Amino acid sequence: MLDGKAALVTGSTSGIGLAMARALAQAGANVMLNGLGDAAEIEKTRAGLAAETGRQIAYHPANMLKPDEIADAVEKTAETFGSLDILVNNAGIQHVSPIDSFPGDKWEAIVAINLSAAFYSTKAALPHMRKAGWGRIVNTASVHGLVASVEKAAYVAAKHGIVGLTKVTALETAEEPITCNAINPGWVRTELVERQIEARAKDMGVGIEEAAVSILSEKQPSLNFVTPEQLGGALVFLCSPAADQITGISLPVDGGWTAR
């Protein structure tokens, strides 16, 4: 479906981003990985994904706090694969604290990585997509781009911003064969969520799985976690011909969270 297309997926050395990169490669795209971590582990991941999918898989170490490095990741993707057709803005961080004690440096970092980085990468990618006459931009937002939760001021603000940026990008490219959409996951059992489950289990004096159900029951009516593979499938759909006229949307993958 995506044979010969070139993709950059930010924050893709693990978790949701890696699952998205894998889904794109399985659909035929060559993929530029990006993210932080141990260099040897990242190379192992890159080589493993290349062997598994038979696609070209490269890596760029751009720091999402630095606009120049973000732009360089876009340019290097185009140089490496001959184009940049798909941009997935997935990199993100989180911090939980009440507003009146929320550290200013955490606010700045969360807004920079979760929102501003997507602006800079989109700005750099659009000329390549326009030159190629085709493009797909998919932003990993969150249910917190649609609703709020306490003690997540920076994350909620940034994810609401991503939804707004998605809509503006979609409108500015509406007459071109370029689309921009957001995927809005609910609870996904990532390492970050696993730590929250462990903390809940300790506070409640219960087992891990009982704590997991407790967390799910507060927000996610399905009582099941979203899987990274399901998010990868949603991404591939948004890049497919079936989604040619889908642009500017926020697609909840949230087990009914935002239906309430």
From TrEMBL:
It is an enzyme of class 1 (oxidoreductase). One of its GO terms (molecular function) is 3-hydroxybutyrate dehydrogenase activity. Its EC number is 1.1.1.30. This is 3-hydroxybutyrate dehydrogenase. Belongs to the short-chain dehydrogenases/reductases (SDR) family. Keywords: Oxidoreductase. It comes from the Bacteria. One of its GO terms (biological process) is monocarboxylic acid metabolic process. SUPFAM superfamilies: NAD(P)-binding Rossmann-fold domains. It comes from Pacificispira spongiicola. Gene3D superfamilies: NAD(P)-binding Rossmann-like Domain. InterPro entries: 3-OHbutyrate_DH, NAD(P)-bd_dom_sf, Sc_DH/Rdtase_CS, SDR, SDR_fam. The lineage of its organism: Bacteria, Pseudomonadati, Pseudomonadota, Alphaproteobacteria, Rhodospirillales.
